[in-house]
Protein 1
Amino acid sequence: MNSKGHTRKKVIYPGVVIISLLKYLVLIAGCVMVLLPLLVIILGAFKDSKEFANTGVFELPASFRFDNFKTAFFEGKVLLGLRNTALIIVISCFGTILTGTMTAFVIQRFDGYFTRAIKGAFLLATLLPNISMQVTVFQIVSKLGLYNTMAAPIILYVGTDIISIYIFMQFLSQIPVSLDESGIMDGASYPRIYFSIILPNLKPAIATVLIIKFVSIYNDFYTPQLYMQDEDLLVVSTVLYKYISSTSIKWEVVFAGIIICILPTLTIFLFLQKYIYSGLVSGAVKE
Amino acid sequence: MKTKSRRNIGFSGWLKTYEGQKLYVSILFLVIPLALLLLFTFVPAFNMVVYSFQKRDQFGVDPEFIGLDNYKTIFTNPDYFITFKNSLYYLFGSFIQQALALLLASILCSKIYAKGLFKGVLFFPYLMNGVAVSIIFLRFFTKGNPPLTGEGTLNSVLMSFGAEPVRWMDPAKPFLVNCCLVFVSVWRYIGFDIIMYIGAIQSISPDLYEASDLDGANPWQRFRYIVFPSIKPIISLQLILAVKGAISVFEIPYIITGGNYGSSTFVIKTIETAFKKKQVGLASAMAVVLLIIIIIVTLIQQFVFKDEKDDSDAKRLRRAKKRLEKRGKA
């Protein structure tokens, strides 16, 4: 395509059609690559165990029965996993938003040596690789008696989430200080300013953080695997992992479980697509 | 004035002034986040460094100071050192991933039907649960356990084209196994890069395109002199993230192969050392090594970014024009 001689005059490319065909070809190839492995899972989830063993991966199931889904949902503890995950997400999000906005408010609005030092401390913390830190975090969590409780992941999700603080600070810097000052003129105290001026204005940032939090907690495997070994404390990721680490794997049920676990993400994605794109990008740029 | 009012109204009165409020609000609002930061980030980080010089078990009974021995083990024992080599697979994979993502992003930024649909499909794997993705690819590559007597997805496709089925997860071929795992990683994360690049490409001012049209640039020149320089900061950010990502790969190989077949990664090895072998000292040393690598990479990133911050659109426009002129004359 790099034709050196053609730069001076406007050239009509005879290959325009070919190029646009190629474009679609590349995109379709990409989508097939994404969908093919998923299609096999969907087909497999509808087959019964005999059928599963005897048919090829692309063969359609004899009929679309939901038995595997039922088994996965109730006996396979997917229901339990979804419930625990939801509980952890709700509490962690609430905690993150509260502590995150408060920290951002103080650091961003009360500029001084003290707050700058704290900002530096949070910045420094972003460097520490979360996963390998668990070697020593684990000792502290178990010393606090939090091992095998839901409090362990929740407190880690809230306490080590520094990206959210940065997103809140970024947003706060765009909320004019004159808004706070008008509050001061009216005699509002700082807590009042925080609750009635800052928090409502942070709504878009809160939405962004909620999305990032949901995705990261829902998909997190490592934290629950490490801190919640108890059968009653299984979350979505650990339920699925338990399936494949057991000795007799019923693949068709596992596949049904996978589909059930992906459905909430898919639903949220379909409804909040735009926000998810922008939310995740703004989360990454701050990293 | 401050001191005066303080004297007149007393301490509790002072707390009600805005100066006083600043103090108690700061304390009230920061006490929990700071406590958590200390307890779950800085204390463990400090412990990590201390433990890394010790021979230490899980419960920390009789830790013994052994100097740099743990670090020596990491860099001399091939069992540990191989994990660095394995992260090179992922690093190389993420270069391919970036190139592919850039290609797909520039296609998605041109005039295309069903843009949203393509974008959505390509992005969705990024949102999927990592365990689910790993199981999906267990099915993709292998026969798996006895009930899975049929060939996996990939082999079924190959066989429908008349090719011989391949044993992808062959313990004797660590190269192949690692390539398969890298493929899964690319499959999962490429959507995110596509979105990043689309954002970067869309933020280019339309004036630049117009100017290039006037100067008669072809699509390749447009990419080379306008799109590429504009998204260079994002590309370098992505490459830095790729290095960090390559050294901290964990989930996919841990679930698909359990780190067997020569596919162990640095983080898998760290976790194994800490929680299976219960050698907390050695694992801490590994964590410290990872930390140092990440700090170095981050410093490089800061350095690179400072260089490119003042690259404004206007400047780039001028430079792009100049280059085109030069080419036109040549």
Note: The radius of gyration of chain A is 25 Å.
Protein 2
Amino acid sequence: MNTRTHTPLFHISKRGQLPWYRAWLIRGIALAVALLLCALVTTVFTGVNPLGVFAAIIRGSFGTARKFWVLLQEMSILLCVALAVTPAFMMRFWNVGGEGQILMGGLATAACMIVFGDKVPNGLLILTMVVASIAAGAIWGAIPAVFKAKWNTNETLFTLMMNYVATQLVAYYCNVWDKKGSGIVGIINPNTHSGWMPGWNSPGGQKYLLNIVVVALLTVGVYIYLRYSKHGYELTVVGESERTARYVGIKVERVVIRTMLLSGGLCGLAGLLLVGSTSHTVSTTIAGGRGFTAVMVSWLAKFNPVMMVLTTFLIVFLQRGAGELSSSFAQINDSFSDILTGIILFFIIGSEFFITYKINFRKAEKEA
Amino acid sequence: MKNTLTRRDFMKVFGLGTASVAAMLALASCGKKEETAPEGEDRDAKVVFDNDSTPFDVSSVTADEVKDFKVGFIFLHDENSTYDKNFLNAAVEACNSFGVPYVLKTNIPEGQECYDTAAELVDDGCNIIFADSFGHEDFMIQAAREFPEVEFCHATGTKAHTEGLENYHNAFAEIYEGRFLAGIVAGMKLNEMIDSGKITADEAKIGYVGAYPYAEVKSGYTSFFLGARYICPSATMEVTFTNSWYDEALEKEGANKLINRGCVLISQHADSMGAPTACEEAGVPDVSYNGSTIDACPNTFLVSSRIDWVPYMQVMIGRTAKKQKINADWTGTLATGSVALTDLNPNTVAAGTQEKLDEVKAMLNDGSLKVFDTATFTVNGETLETYLADINDWGDFTGETESIKDGAFVESFFRSAPSFDIDIDGITNIDA
């Protein structure tokens, strides 16, 4: 009978805090391996020179001044949503309803532009749009929060389903506003530009300056809110341990609802920027999956708003690169670009595992 | 549990928000779109009806004229959508016929991304840019205003003849003639079913899965139905809408619903394989759209009508290269080869279908048969004497242009995009 105790080939243990340079070394290695694998996959499956592929990815974001502006614009919207979902996530409230909250913000903005356009002074109209969009997003975020606080419903499912309700509401109003029956609203107030936020008539990519400035300020604001305000402290405690929070006298329900009002409100702001400042139209696809992508941005940055600038850049850079790739090479289509993006993200997310955990291999056994 | 949200908290968060609730309520009660286009005469002065169908001789372009020439394309989806695939294949073929380089941009949403992409294509040196989806129109116009030296061509759009821009153009094809011919194939099949005793004449009911209750779709299913009834006089039709151009699950569900209601033949105007697949599973004959589905549905596919965009793109690219004037609208026809039927499925179509098709096609070509002949249909039991179609898309959603001429509705005449949006007797909308 075998009486030897069996030692596994390796086991995993949690690391202590790694010095920053070792953490970045691991990330660097992961990225290098990812790029190598991308190069290999590209050459094997398409026969395209991988150096050309990397050049095209970089060109997607930095090829021309306009592409750089578009990069900043896309970054600002995604970052806005990531900043929005972060307080909820720090509270361990899984808000996957960003998509719906953005849509509601966008819908409220479009409604103001259509209903009040040319009827009230432009400044007042824009103020109404700001207020309405933030409120609409906040309400959409607060509904699941109230249910969570009062009846402990599952917020992941609840916020997810609110996305579908929001999508249908937008689809409904698109049909109301477009009586031709095509379901497409088109650009709102195309001749009077009523309700278009400042900067739309700037040349080239500078028309996105407003969005970029607003989100830059927001990044600083959220950083301060989470790091230095009482609210930020409270929601962190709730996230760490609800019981501890109750013990020290924090009203958990109140914090949950308040934080989701903020989270939804900021998503609503993203909707405002998309509709009032960028596209000047509304459709079911304006959010473009950012409500979900933002979750990844936020997690990758470990909920640190400043780090989120970097992770947002990474995601948007890869997306823009993928678009450039598929139009640069006949052998590469969007799906292949997505595979490359997937490989890079897989390695970057995976590298966090090796930063947090250590793999211990079995030592050579004496009696063997 | 007690309500833990205090009034002070509430006011803090909602301090800004109270007014907005009023705005939201206003939104719920009021859905009227105030259009801002200039009213009256100066508005009408911008209207140019110069729709033409002249083909282009590719061989007349010299190598010198297409030196440093480049074409850009913007697609809503990619080759997974039948509509985009059809457009994409045409794009490659048209560019190759001139030997000019091209850039294809797929999966571009109907928002600011369309404008950004168009602008990037201009930066990239494109002389002419095409977009394929209806919702791209406003953003193409925005780009056309900013870059007057580049030609912008938009398929399925409605605004070129009222925008007053030299470099912005709409296009479509007289696909209603293709639909009518597809309807002939359907009618022949219905007659075969009646003759073989499979169904009675009263049971000759067609089902149609439409995307939106929009002129393009209504014109399509009405011409298809009129074609079928031209052959099988007892035919009726039921229509259901998915309210999406591409939703495989909904299209399949719609087709199944129609089959369960007793429809013995299905056709569709939506871009996925949903309806054809449902038909193959249920063994119900199907008339497809945008391209043949014979590989996936060998036992039920009859025929498909589609727009061949190659002649259109050749006209636009050729005239741009030769620096010739391009009209606001261009409409492809049977004669230009823009309206095409796929090969018939020999295993499913009724005997004598090809001969009948040739006969009807000849009559359409010489004008002795008109698809929307007012003698062949009624509206609320009466023959249509007059109809104002909404040709000028001011956003007022009211018709302004008399479209009944010489006893027929003139389709794709004033502008290229279809404008027939009349509900005729014999077709039932089961969603209404």
Note: Chain B touches chain A through 57 residues (CB under 8 Å).
